[in-house]
Amino acid sequence: MASQSSQKSSQLSKKRFSGLFSGLLEGFLKPSCSLCQRPAARSAFCVDCDQQIQSCRWAHHDYRVPTPLPVIAWGTYSGPLKRALHQLKYQNCPEIAAPLGTDLGRLWQQAWSQKTALQRQVQGRQIVVVPIPLHPERLSQRGYNQAELIAQGFCRLTGLPCLGRGLLRVRATEAQHQFGLTTRQSNLRSAFRLGPDWTLDRMSSAVLLIDDIYTTGATAQAAATELQQSGLKVLGMATVARAILRHPGATAAESAPAEQRPRLSLTR
Fold it and tell me: Taking the CB of the first residue and of the last residue of the chain, which one, N or C, has fewer CB atoms within 10 A?
């Protein structure tokens, strides 16, 4: 009797140890949030951080300052979303790009279904996605192009083809965030060239540019100009975040808080 009791006690201890070990192993293997290091619900964010990022989403778009190209932005460049993009770009957190790209893809699908004028622009052309490229030196330093990773998440959801080398950045430029619009435009002159991903049948496509942040539009316009000069049609840009500036020539550091909740559409 004592022997049976001892065996049961030993089996119970083993089960408890096994359960404890499995719990610790599961906690160790479970991905941690890229912003707070707690267990993550999505591939990059925990439940709390994900909710905070989702709160940065705009319900609609209504800007007083016109943009050089039609642009659709998922959220405002502030708060948790700004922090997430900073981690993505400067803290070696490439896993952040996929969920942001997926969210941007959902917004694009919603905008596409509602925007008949946009559909008329396509006129039967295939839409292809082209991320804003990094210069090879910057790419080597960072190890990845955050815009291309966002574009990949976007394309996995939408099914659109992604041309990762649709554009090349052939001239190194200084960090854009410190400049106003005029200096940005000068800084980006002749910075882009058509990349090797264009086959003859794709030259009739309509291009959607993808980037992480839209500030003054100088980068988008420089990229679009290179594509247009090559005979390609540019629909506009889809971006994760847009900085709201006090005036057209403001720098990113002068961005004003987004007090208005901008209508879902592509706007000029």
Answer: N
Q: What is the pLDDT of residues 61-72, one digit of tens each?
A: 544 456 778 899
Q: Is the dihedral of CA 211, 217, 219, 221 positive or negative?
A: positive
**How many C-beta neighbours within 10 Å does residue 198 have?**
19
Q: How far apart are CA 125 and CA 236, in angstroms?
A: 14
Question: Which of 133, 166, 151, 56 lies closest to 94 in space, CA to CA?
Answer: 151
The C-alpha atoms of residue 237 and residue 224 are separated, in whole angstroms, by 9
Name every residue whose Cβ is closer than 8 Å to that of residue 11 and which is 6 or more positions away in sequence.
Answer: none
Half-sphere exposure of 86 (CA within 13 A, CB side): 9
pTM of the model: 0.77
CB atoms within 10 A of CB 99: 20
How many CB atoms neighbour CB 172 within 10 A? 11
Question: In this predicted model, what pLDDT tens digit does every residue of 94-146 receive, in sequence order?
Answer: 999 999 999 999 999 988 887 766 677 787 889 999 999 999 999 999 999 99
Q: How far apart are CA 145 and CA 134, in angstroms?
A: 6
Report how far residue 173's alpha carbon sits from residue 201's, in angstroms, rounded to the nearest whole number. Answer: 32
C-alpha 114/C-alpha 191 separation (Å) is 34
| Nearest CA-CA partner of 172 in 194, 188, 195, 149 | 188
Give the other-Cβ count within 10 Å of 254's Cβ.
12
Residue 219 CA: distances (Å) to CA of 30, 51, 131 = 38, 30, 11
Residue at 20: amino acid letter: L
Q: Which helix (H) or strand (E) holds 51?
A: helix 47-54
